[in-house]
Automatic annotation (TrEMBL):
Its cofactor is FAD. It comes from the Bacteria. The keyword Amino-acid biosynthesis does not apply. Belongs to the NADH dehydrogenase family. This is NAD(P)/FAD-dependent oxidoreductase. Residues 3-282 form the FAD/NAD(P)-binding domain. Keywords: FAD, Flavoprotein, Oxidoreductase. Gene3D superfamilies: 3.50.50.100.
Amino acid sequence: MKNLVIVGGGYGGMRILHRLLPNQLPENIQLTLIDKNPYHCLKTEYYALAAGTISDQHIRVSFPEHPRLHIKYGEVSAIHLDKKEVIVNAEAFPYDELIIGLGCEDKYHDVPGADEYTSSIQTIDLARNTYKMLNNLNAGATVAIVGAGLSGVELASELRESRKDLKIKLYDRSKHILSSFPERLSNFVEKWFVDHGVEIINHANITKVEQNLIYNHDQPFECDAIVWTAGIQPNKVVRELPIEKDSQGRVVLTPQHFIPNYEDAFVVGDCASLPHAPSAQLAEAQAEQIVQVLLKKWHGEPLPDSFPPFKLKGVLGSLGKKQGFGLVNDHPLIGRVPRLLKSGLLWVYKYHNG
């Protein structure tokens, strides 16, 4: 029996499992899922876990159950493409076909001290630690959030609603936060922060981080906590693979989403070089195409030469529990509606996925 190993139970891995199970998995194929957590985590909601407005239970989804799905819990330390094996807890797991969905880590842009003296929301473990740190702060403490993209904005707004006593500073290197969004949308979010007492530091350039000190343009500023949301990079295991990467360190793939010269090894999600910024939506769309490739391989059919471009519906972000923003089909949305949309989509994903 052939063994399809899925490394990482994130959005891409989960979509593949739900498409293959229970009815599309051939009788001669078994699945092995490798993940360090005993559940799928809703990474898009880690900001709320860190801010203390939701609990673990809200962002956990059980993995599917099936007689030919075997789950191994552990952390992947290496992948040997030539040997066709994955190393987990110093043990080698062979595979016939492999899907790598290990996700991403913080990217510190070579800023001294950033990895040592800042907190993170990149994994559920790190988000839990950030929650403990933020919610143990004394009244009036200062929190610096580095990076005003989607994660930084959502964390800052959620933390403001959770801890109205804190002084929150949001550092952004651009002229406006959410610079990749339309100006009307950026202005709405900036006004929300001004109205709610969150200080935005534009044109920031963080040059160094020390214990309770953040250096902006080499000028030190005291703070009680620092959270880093200023960029991501592929998981270290993927970065160490001796294969072609793009300028962001993501794996260059064939149109069928496997690694060139390794047609049995696919990469899904944040580690894949794709024509869009990494997102849960993109990982799921790519996973759908990978399933098509796998089914054709298993049935001895020719693989598709190419796929249609990904059709992503847009982006939705939160400003606390009552306001939000988003781009849906290139139309900017602000206010209550995008927040309701995001809540509804999250509910559908959690309770009706698969």
